[in-house]
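During the reporting period the student researcher (J.K.) took over the structure-prediction task from the postdoctoral fellow and processed the backlog of single-chain submissions. One of the processed entries is reproduced below for the supervisory committee.
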Amino acid sequence: MRHVLTEALSGLRRNASMAFAVIVTMWVSLSLFGIGLLAAAQVDLFKGRWYDKIEVSVYLCTPDPAPTSGSGCAVNVGATDAQREAIKAALVGNDLVETVYYESKDEAFAEFKQVYANSPVMATMTVDMMPDSYKVKLKDPTKYDAIKTQFSGLPGVDSVKDLHEVLDPLFAWLDLARWATIGASLLLLLAATLQISNTIRMAAHSRRREIGIMRLVGASNWYIMLPFLLESLVAAVFGAVLAAGTLAAIEQFVILGKARAQILSVPWIGWSQVGLATASICGVAVVLSIIPTLIATRRFLRV
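J.K. obtained the following structure tokens:
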């Protein structure tokens, strides 16, 4: 075992610059890979929180001289009591609906005043101009399209809206950023793999005579390869440790120190997600250090 450790340390000293390059490349690529995993966990938390709270709003007709095209509204005629009751009965009897809440014009106007308290548009708005609506909580928030299809255009219904129209593009961009980060990290991991392979190949080539002698005296393949495996593993572990430190710094100073303290209304990833990401990058680092080494040293094990 002493010989294996000595040979591994000697190889690292002889190829110090290449080993340093491998460590830096592994550090950057594994950090990006871990950030991609954390971004994925954050998007899932956002979706879980917001999708669970999404309400579908069924807005009823107001006495509008130019009703929305495709709506169930007549010119200058608001929703009648009979239409309200029919819409409510259809919502309550729908298998996709969990709860239904009616928001009157007065309640809608009060909420509008809170949101646009300092806006000049308040001077032009009246209670009668506000649409009353049914706020619908779905059993499965992802089935909002079915409700929108069923109730759009019904008599007395002006429009059917929900937060998915706003959140889905946002989540699409977040998913794109996540996959872009992971894609960039995979390219860098490929570069690190090639660097490890080249480093080990150069080390094995410089020791090809020693390897040949060891094979002739009966040394096993694993005994010969073990110093090279340790060399690549040490570089990969250093890169993984630096990447883990990077993820921990992001969690401590960016997530906990800034985001969570300033934005309290959304859930943020915690140390459990960082732990899972760290375990993943360590596993990737070990695999990427072993496989290229086995491939690079195989041709030198033939006598």
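The committee noted the following: The radius of gyration is 31 Å.
J.K. will present the remaining backlog at the next meeting.
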